[in-house]
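Q: What structure does this chain adopt?
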Amino acid sequence: MQLDEMVERCVVRRSGVSVLLWALALVWCAVVCPLARAEVWEFVDRNGVVHMGNVAPPAARGVLWLEGVGGAVADKPQGMVKQPLSMPGYESAKPVLEEAARAQALDPALVIAVAAAESAFNTEAVSRKGALGLMQVMPATAQRYGVTARSTHEVRQAVMEPKLNAHIGSKYLADLLRLFDGDKELALAAYNAGEGAVLKHGRRIPPYPETQQYVERVLNIYRSLLR
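A:
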């Protein structure tokens, strides 16, 4: 995703002393960390590099929050996205997403959950695969739904507009729900991996860790919004 904020990076020196200190730190963490719950952040930068930590998360949109106890986070790679209400951009994105959902006769909570998982409500988010905006719409998907322009740059500019982005994403999601007979899991898997991947695997969630984690993450957010 395209973000301007700086992300902290931890560099470990490769001298014998530093490696020894690092090893001791890991042992200490293994013993002490399980004793307390910690809120851990995970962030994928514009180059696709994953950054994680539990202190001073980057003040940026696009931060996924995982829930776990010490090393248990590694056992739950799907994690949970922090409550949408606490994400930057939620208040301004909510009415746009709700309007787009109603236009497609979708549950607004589902559309909001998709946007939360896709961009954390960052209207300027750009993935390393070229997905754009609030609902991470691919330019090819936008063109499929009638967005035309003289250049790729103009298509991108059009798709980044929040209202249009929300409407395209919602329309695509509605079509996927119809294609898979209202099955939310399959529709979400197709939103992430493409409908061809779901059909190829016998109308089942493809065996891709990213897609499986995505489906669970969106449904977790969706359920939290219905409480």
